[in-house]
Amino acid sequence: MIRFRYQPERSQLGIIYRPVATALLEHKGVRIELPLYIDSGADISMIPYRFGKALRLDRKSKDRIRKIRGITGASVPYIVKRLSFIFRGRKITARVAWSTKEEVPLLLGRMDIFDNFRITFDQRNRAVNFYEYK
């Protein structure tokens, strides 16, 4: 089991605890450790433009810019890329929405990630548990 603790953040409601996973993202030999919001409502994981550049992602002529809408209804342009996510030694290759904008949160979405685990949100104990399927 891999356990991630909720992280406290200041909001308009005061201090609120949010489910956050720390993962290494890897591409072309570059690794960056990032905190990602664990978002069961997100279809795909998402990273801002600068983190994609740091991971040596590049835009190719065949890449199609798509648009996704968040809960606010705002449109965010992105390109689908593949990265490795490493969770405490467990490596998973997954599609990620590489935003062409900076103003997007780091999200850990369902696509290619959630199928590898049985995930429980333990709100009372402020933890998310990832149980690996064998």
Based on secondary structure, the structural category is mainly beta
User: Span between N and C termini?
Assistant: 11 Å
Topology order in helix (H) and strand (E) letters: EEEEHEEEEEE
> Helix proportion of residues, in percent?
under 10%
Short structural summary:
The protein is mostly beta strands.
Description of the structure:
4% of the residues lie in helices and 57% in strands. It is mainly beta. Strands 1, 2, 3, 4, 5, 6, 7, 8, 9 and 10 form a ten-stranded mixed sheet that branches. A hairpin with a 5-residue loop joins strand 5 (66-69) and strand 6. The longest helix is centred in the middle third of the chain and has 6 residues, at 49-54. The chain is globular, with a radius of gyration of 15 Å.
Main traits of this protein?
mainly beta; 10 strands; 57% strand
List the helices and strands and how they pair.
Elements lengths: L1 E10 L2 E14 L2 E9 L6 E3 L1 H6 L11 E4 L5 E13 L2 E10 L7 E2 L8 E6 L4 E6 L2
Parallel strand pairs: 3-8, 4-7
Antiparallel strand pairs: 1-2, 1-10, 2-3, 2-6, 5-6, 6-7, 9-10
